[in-house]
Structures are given as structure tokens and as C-alpha cells.
Design a protein that fits this description.
Largest sheet: 6 strands, antiparallel, barrel
Number of helices: 1
Structural class: mainly beta
Strand content: 35-45%
Distance between the termini: 14 Å
Length: 199
Amino acid sequence: MPDPFPSTPVPSMVSSPEVLDPMWQYQVDQGYQFRRAKHSRPRLRYTLEYLGLDVTNLRILRDFFQAQRLGVTSFTWVHPTAVDVAQVAATTPVSLTYLHGLWTGAWVVVSNSPNPGINGGSFQITRTAYNQYTLNGTTAAGIAGTATVQVYLPRAVGIFREDVWPQPAPLIGPDQTAHAPSGRRSGRYNTMVTIEEIF
């Protein structure tokens, strides 16, 4: 199982997802052009922006991406700032209704549901409509209600141009943690990370 992305620090901003859906494109002898998707579903890419990070939190992120070798190994990621509220139907498999923008094969994490069997779980989905999907492998608990839902990427990687994570933009002070007896100043930094779903 891949390592989980650190839950702290929480990003100041997470972008709306970029949708990646590369195509095969070719032309036959009769002059017709064909396009076919390379993958079974689109993938998502997010940009996480961290503003005013202290040195301790900056080092947490830096250590994590160094351990992942800047995108060589994958990790799991739960969207930290976008929490949707969905209507839960007492069906088998359990059906959720809200404007989701997801495709069959995507993953979500569900919590605060009246169905205890799905709380805290991560589920692959089957899209049934633009505003509805089912959670694969779930059963009804006979109770309808609402739940909170977050996008989950079971395999994501960091994307770094030219395999370099640029130096964070310093706002104040050096890259050292505060130390009260010596009076050293701790720094504050802005940085950005792009993560991308992989299959």
C-alpha cells in the first residue's frame, strides 16, 4: 500500500482539478481520422498551494517528497479542502446523489453517513448519472440520509518540472526552526506542489 500524503500542513488552496484524457489519433487510407481514449477513464491533476508555511511544516512536505523521490513512488491522497454533502439512498449498492463530476472507476472517501458500513471507507464508484453514482461492493443499511464525501486518489505522484522541486519563496527568516534560548528566527515560506492521479 502506498504511503499516505501528510495530513498536515493543510494547503491554503487546492485548485479545481485538471482533467487528463489523452487520445490516440490516427488516419486511415480513405482519409478518415479516428480518435480513441488511451485510458478507461480521465485522470485528475491538482495543484496544492501552501502560503506562509513555517519551517517545521515545510520540512514535513520536503521530507515526504524526498522519500517519494520527487514522483518515483506513489502515495494515497484525500482531497483536504473540498468536502461535498451527498444524499445517501438505502440501495444495494449504496447510491449517492450530488453534482460530483466523477467517472466510473474514480474513488471517494465517505463519512458521517447513516449507513455505518460505509463510514470511513474508500470506494471505487460506478457513475449512473451526472449527479449520481453507486459505491462498488456496498450494501444498504435500510437508512437514507446525508453523508460527506471527499475525492480519493489511491495512487498519485508528485509532478515536478525537470525533476526539480524549486526552492520555496521565502517570506521571512532563514530555513531553521525557532529556538527560544538562542533567539534564532524561524522562516516562513510559500510553496506549491502538483499531484497527479495514476492508474
